[in-house]
Amino acid sequence: MLPTAARRSLAGLIPPKIATPSAVSSGSTSARTASVIEFYSKLPKGPKPASERPGGLRGRYFEGKNASGAPLLATIFILFGIGYTIDYNMHLKHHKNGHH
Q: Helix/strand/coil (H, E, C) string of 5-50?
């Protein structure tokens, strides 16, 4: 994972109001405040560059403007349909010789 992507993913973990005016004005917490400011200054700003965006099926269907769960639901229904068809045909083979 790229360092900027790691920083971007960590941005939501630390609340932005950690450096309150009272914490900034007190002398004892200046080192802690400096480390928070240093962390936030390294975070990338703005949208993710096109070079870091995922491509392929994930980028096309699950991220971006046309993000949707429809391909996932379609895959589930198709697999269910295939399984049902196989089960039904096996059941017909079972009844072929008059069992039951």
A: HHHHHHCCCCCHHHCCHHHHHCCCCHHHHHHHHHHHHHCCCCCCCH
The model carries a pTM of 0.43
Q: What is the pLDDT of residues 29-74, one digit of tens each?
A: 667 777 778 888 888 888 777 677 777 878 778 877 778 888 899 9
Distance CA 35, CA 30 (A): 9
Q: Which residues contact 4 (CB under 8 A, 6 or more apart)?
A: 44, 52
For residues 37 and 19, is the Cβ–Cβ distance under 8 A?
yes
Give Cα 16 to chain centroid, integer Å: 22
